[in-house]
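S2.1 Query sequence (NAD(P)-dependent dehydrogenase, short-chain alcohol dehydrogenase family)
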Amino acid sequence: MTGPLSGRVALVTGAARGIGLAIATRLADAGAHAIIHDRDAAAADAAVADLRAQNHAATALIADLAEPSAPAAMAAQLMAKGTEPDILVLCASVEMLENWDAVSEAAMAAQTQINLHATVRLLQAFLPGMLSRGFGRVIAIGSVQEARPNPTHLYYAATKAAQTNMILNLARTTQAPDVTFNIVKPGAILTDRNRTVLAQPGREQQVLARIPLGRIGRPEDCAGTVLLLCSPEGSYINGAEIAVDGGLRL
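Output structure tokens follow.
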């Protein structure tokens, strides 16, 4: 399929559902070959089948980012197929809701492993190829929690803020003419992860009262911003933190 991203390969982590799938679909709509990463093989295969039914190029890539060796193995697998990514969207994350006095060792370890350690490993696995080819787009999916964390998000918010710091560091120090690093920060988005929370009595009304636009966001609301950052029109955007939250952070 032709489009502004024709010939590009986009690896989206955690892309079998939710925001990741919406992003991968939008990039595929624009002509990119979408690499659907997830640890859920059945969900990833279903997403790929749906994209291929729409005449999009798509491939599943199954790996558990909690495994330290996973990113290097992912890179080797893609290289063997000749589908090295030009675009890396860091969407996979772990979010565990715990108040400060109940944060567990297991929750800290899981969120650190995926939100921080896997970020570094994925960058080490895929950024060198982008630099050598002279084109790259790295986009981290952050969170409104970085700016306005809920009491239950003490540790999660801290890991996402640290991830943002990494991306901004690379945006400033990499200094490659056509390799950019940006962060998209969703607010309250109706994903499988958030449906359970929003279904709690009175919770959706409480959240809506904090959003100036007065509605819960859709995964697709984030996808258009990512497409801009990957497109020629977004080639001079580097080191940006773009909130897609309806004003929730304010």
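Residues 76 and 125 are 9 Å apart (CA to CA). The mean pLDDT is 95.
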